[in-house]
Batch of 4 targets.
Target 1
Amino acid sequence: MASSWPIAFWDEAFWFPANRSWGWKDLVNKPGANIYLPDLKDIHWALLLGVVLIGVRYLVETIFVVPVAIWLGVPNRKKPHVTPNKDLETAYKSKKYSKNEIKILSKQIDMSEKQVEVWFRRRRKVDAPTPIQKFRECSWHLLFYTAFFFYGMTYLWQKEYFWSTIECWRNWPIQHVSNDMYWHYMIELAFYWSLVFTLFSDHKRKDFKEMIIHHFATIVLMYFSWVLNFVRVGTLVLVVHDAADTWLALAKMSIYAKNKAATDIFFGIFLLVWVLSRLIIYPFFVLYCTLVEPFTIKLIDSTFGAHQFFNFFLCVLLVLHFIWTYLIFRIVYRKMVKGNVEDVRSDSEDSGEESDTEDIEDEKEWNGNDNIKVNGKIINGNAAKALNCQNGRRVKNGK
């Protein structure tokens, strides 16, 4: 295999089973052959496609998603004004605003402790995404996962290995990669590259570290499964993972649109699909296929380096499934106790999504006045709080 990578990296003793005579020469496409074998050069195009998908995402969100979000009544609050303060900004960026630190800061800058707390709360709101921004992000996930789940199911339904996973290993590694498999792999990999490129600009959630691990494991698996022509197993992994994500996106979008009935319905469907796809089909069919079935048909006598490598990353994904399942069942518990479904992946500490009443209280503490301007009219602060008004503004001295 022609490559700029060090020769030791491509040592056939690592990549191929010892009881077979296969080597990289067997995975080279031959002129006139009626089968296509994965070529490492092809999959590099996924990087460029990932950049293209970012552009497509921006256009789709701007032209279609935002008008739909507005029509559904998704809030699009303006960012609050925060008075510049060098000392508080330094403390905010270093995340040094515990109760004791706030007490010290209030003495240093001649502000009350409550006013310092309000400043930090407002500052978090500036960085926090608005509901409509999170709705846009989820809508892109919804469109992609839905499209490629159905795309994958359409062609996989006709594949023998979809119904009998042991066929993933017959005649390996000389297995033809059809056009539908090729584009499934290429565009899914491009999508994950686009998620990596936007990782720090998208809404940062509690499971940010887990998502980094997930994206890294997925990209590594896709690259090297392509190199070794584990593509049949790879397509099964992709479609199993896409199954639940559509319903998760719908549930979260319903939360942002404040549609409780839709949230409950979509979350219930998501829960069922998640358990079926991630906790039953993935470990007992897909992982079984990679861990056991190569030995069942006596393809290999013992595991080899690349086989262990892929199984390790597939098991990393399973561990992440368990972590997310814990978070999901926390939602179920909250639903049973509190009667509402929340997006527990959102960072509750820095989400900046305080209630409208808290907005009013913030302005009261900041300005020291009980008059609130609502839709151009000055009303009493207690009345405004009772109305839970959304865009109340404190007016000094009744002006």
Target 2
Amino acid sequence: MFVYLPTPLILSLTFTLGACMFPGQHWGEWNDSQLLPTIQKLMKGYNRYLRPNFNEGPVEIGMSLDIASIDAISEINMDYTATIFLRQRWRDSRLVFPGNESVSVDGRLVSLLWIPDTFIPDSKRSFLHDVTVENRLIRIFSNGTVLYALRITATIACNMDLTKYPMDRQVCTLQLESWGYNLQDVVFYWTRGNDSVRGLDTLRLAQYSVESYYTSVSEAVYETGQYPKLVLHFALRRNVLFFILETYVPSTLLVVLSWVSFWISQSSVPARTCIGVTTVLTMTTLMMGARTSLPNANCFIKAIDVYLGICFTFIFGALLEYACAHFYTMQHQTIEDLHRELAREFYESNGNGSIATSTRPKNSVKVNPPEEESTEEPANCDTQATVEPKEEKPGQGCSLSSVKDVSRRAVSIFIVENPHNIDRHARTVFPTAFLFVNILYWLYYLFL
């Protein structure tokens, strides 16, 4: 049968048993070969409400971290969830005992000791693991050094710049500060510099890889004073291969598929229309799916949005190309039908006139005498003389002719003599322009 004993009773029993086992020894006489220090002996006269070195200077607290895992990185909430082992070391002269050994005590006895009030300022949610007991470790060394370790999981904010998503590089931080003790009371430092953080080198993430990390020591300035602060900076590089296979390759293939219509006859209206509409709708669905896992922030125009917009523009342009080619084909066909109709009417009218002239006598040719011709020439000269001064008058006919010329040139721009040349030019212009835009896109987002 198990009987629960309170902690004070356990301590007193430990003290009594130790006295019975070593009757010749006294608790005031330390001997590390026969007697280890008990909590009751160390806690005698100890005040956990006063920090070490009270009124003698600040307490130096060394920090080290083990990153066990980074479970999730959310672009929507702009945070990451990490499980860390936080270790803190400081020296408390009130806990000095003879010898060169250390004492590990139960983590539940942490309420008997003074511990730093360290917290994570950017934490949104955090908890201490308690399976099967609270994951705390307290170890006291003979020179009074106290090692306090705990295992926590925290969701920490990380300001992200998603303008180059998914070719982005995010720099997140893990900050440690003192809640109530200012710089006159405690001083934080990393125990081994950058080597104080372990676990990031071997960390494996789903979409990211740890590119680099470093530590720094700074101060947190608030209205109530200046407080010590330690910062861990680590850079995360997103793995772009997943997005290339999921988004970039399908969108590029849709653009290439829209170019197939350039090789289909313009008379095949259902085929070309079906290809254009299908590619536009598929591209729209792809754009909507790419935005579901990202924050709906107007301030971010992401790289993937730019590329999807480029692909959608080329696909929609291919559809408009067929609309223009079909329009000019119908216009050209209408003009040809009109020309044929006019030619037919002209030939019919000329045919009737030739029959009428063939019935006339061949010798009925009128010859004007030389006097009449000579008299007609001066008359023509007089008429030309009377007409030419009218043309030389300024402001008459000049503006009207210039307007007609401009209108003819403007109309000639929109007149295509051979509508089939539109498809021939599109087969070269569209792939060349798309290749050029891709080169500029990847150069800018990968190297700039």
Target 3
Amino acid sequence: MAWVLKMDEVIESGLVHDFDASLSGIGQELGAGAYSMSDVLALPIFKQEDSSLPQENETKHPPFQYVMCAATSPAVKLYDETLTYLNQGQSYEIRMLDNRKAGDIPEINGKLVKSIIRVVFHDRRLQYTEHQQLEGWKWNRPGDRLLDLDIPMSVGVIDIKTNPSQLNAVEFLWDPTKCTSAFIQVHCISTEFTPRKHGGEKGVPFRIQVDTFKQTENGEYTDHLHSASCQIKVFKPKGADRKQKTDREKMEKRTAHEKEKYQPSYDTTVLTECSPWPDTPTTFVNNSPTPAPTFTSAQHNTYSVPDSNSSSPNHQGDGTSQGSGDQLHPSATIQETQQWLLKNRFSAYTRLFSNFSGADLLKLTREDLVQICGPADGIRLYNALKSRSVRPRLTIYVCQEPLRSIQLEQRQDAGSTDSNGAIYVYHAIYLEEMAASEVTRKLALAFNIPLHQINQVYRQGPTGIHILVSDQMVQNFQDESCFLFTTIKAENGEGFHIILK
């Protein structure tokens, strides 16, 4: 795929005339809220003296035009492709413009089209190894995506979808007759794919490519209409602004004769026509909380709101809340495990865990899940899996001594019965925290004692001494220890103390 358009190729193919014609077509009425001619005045087009081409060399008029609201670099040679600097994670608007002439592609009138936006490599060498490069990036940045759509900022986009296996692409539907803007965020930086880490200016260039399709008779959006792309470099936050300023200062120092060899910086970047991306899109995950509609009518919502129960914009759930009884058991089959993932808002990972049974999933450690799903969803999945079997850190058994104050030596065989045959009933106290305050709180709950009335908790030691129960003492309790306790009034008469025996 030849990305850089040389001037002789442009003259032969008649693309200069197309650019001139596309400008004249932008001003046509695009529907309510459409962009006017003033929105795209600063377009990186070729010189007008080259537009006097024979009419027979005209190519097909491009049906759409995509304009990214980011300035082009001034340090680009006159006939080279434009280069645009972007900041990592910053939202950039791509305006989706209907550029059709009257009567062009009438079959999409009143219907939606689908566009897929990708960030791909510009260098052919990296294109050949794209899968390996992206897998390496995914390993170093678990849970992150190369490209995201800023849904709250976007306008006119419908049925937004992402694919967990395609971290560099997003797709959506839109109406060409309505004002549509897709705000994208690129999270990879150019230096992440260079063997040696220099600065952003030494990083590899990427491409933003938009492929648009119309609906076929079977309802699938696979009939290709148009593709366009532009060259970009991505810097760490604020790095693109510094690079743009540096290029501008360098150009200001050049002579007037040298400046003629370079194209000016434009406020916006027009994506130039190219071949469609060869990869056929696979199944995408729906990011909308409602089922995907059948697109046969012009009546549609023009904004998809993400599920408020979702953990992140990249992985939206299906809105099904988890009931308290929804637990994944080791005996769960693969199908039951898939259903559990969907119910608990892990739909983005159903394909990844498509061959996992309940036992397989429960065997994964916290570190395994963080590595597979990323920190946020990995920890959430780990907690969801382990919440069914949260074990206390310590269990003790406590019984309140009868008011008649049975002597300790009267207990028989670890306090099972007294000399009169009375049964001692013990309460199990489960401690999630190994702290004295946790013991006090659990005793108050188990025996209906007002917590504010308990001043101190002591343990009866050798020769009947009272030892203050501290965090360190609790940490040295043996699991499943048994205690009798009595209460004595505090010295000041306010509240009482608990003594564990």
Target 4
Amino acid sequence: MAVVRGRLAPAYPAGLGAFGVYLRGYHGALAEWLGASARRRLPLADRYALLHWHNQVYPREVLGLVDMAALENGELGPLLSPGTLRGLEDECVTDVKAQTRAALLRVLQEDEEHWGSLEDQPSSLAQDVCELLEEHTERAPRISQEFGERMAHCCLGGLAEFLQSFQQRVERFHENPGVREMLPDTYISKTIALVNCGPPLRALAERLARVGPPESEPAREASASALDHVTRLCHRVVADLLFQELQPHFNKLMRRKWLSSPEALDGIVGTLGAQALALRRMQDEPYQALVAELHRRALVEYVRPLLRGRLRCSSARTRSRVAGRLREDAAQLQRLFRRLVSVGTRFGGLSETRTRLGFREAGDLHAPVCSSPHRRKHVAALLDIRGLRNTAARQEILAVARDLELSEEGALSPPRDRAFFADIPVPRPSFCLSFPLFLGRLPLSRLARPTLACLPRPRPPSLVRPRARR
């Protein structure tokens, strides 16, 4: 057409409009050929090429050379009708959905075959998934923005379906008894590889949701939910393995030797620090979440024997020694988790407990209880440890804690520190029962007429006759 415009058309009289005749003939021949091609069952790659040439190449590289005056008044119609274009796009979306589903399941199956092996092979699962989907999500927008949105929505739905299958297979992997018999280092390495699939796949889902239409949001949420489940499961597996190794050290806490020797906590800190080298292979986002969980569990396991009554403070001197040891241990744990890059992680459990044990007078406990993260049963356990046996003072403090609990019953979520102490069960009841509260729960008539079950029963007579004295 450039040659016709520059060399052939000027040879005709200007009034004949020779270039327009050639242009309409060329355009009509192309439309006829493209229409016949569109009616055939083309491979996916050829449909992409046809749509791209129709929408981008022809307008830019052919019609862009034409004097716009020749295109006025609708002299040239579309090469393909809107219905034909929509049909081609529909076929592309259908084929992409089927092909990517099969391809994603295939790469998942191939990767899963290596999960149970003893060899530490790097996983390319996330990279393979991203490449499979990005091949289509990058080509479609080059054809048209609307087609790009439809393709992003299609691929996001396929990704959500894939991630649900991925979640189920990860669950089966961790439930397999044979897998549990792996060496701990190998098991942790396999688990880290599974966790590391999360960040790139999560980023892909977010990107597809931004490009896709508003109805893509449920698929994005389903993708995020599956990845969150996998990450929490793998974090729990890693934490369980670590704390199995740490349990002998935690068993030494809150005993007499613990007051005079840092041996128990040194073992905890040393083990966690050594394992952190292997955990650092985890990508940054899940690694930070894992360190926060290890921090929380370390404090839970540290405080648990204290609240279960393993140690009692019989004097002010003992209370001071316990508070001092708690202060030193809290500082050592804080230094450890700062070194492990636990950004923004803070649990007040250990410092709160140490502070309360350090008070000298029972009355000094009233104000801190009002802002305490402990539940009433935990406050009672702390009073037992502190050695507070005065019934009046004890019940006054417990009443404040009970009022605080009642005021927070309607809250949507408990404060962070209170949720922390909720993970530490106190197996036995508090030291004494609040008699005024007890009276409030029973009718006076029932107290005035005790049942026979409340009365002491006489001991039955012995069936063996006493021997006669000689």
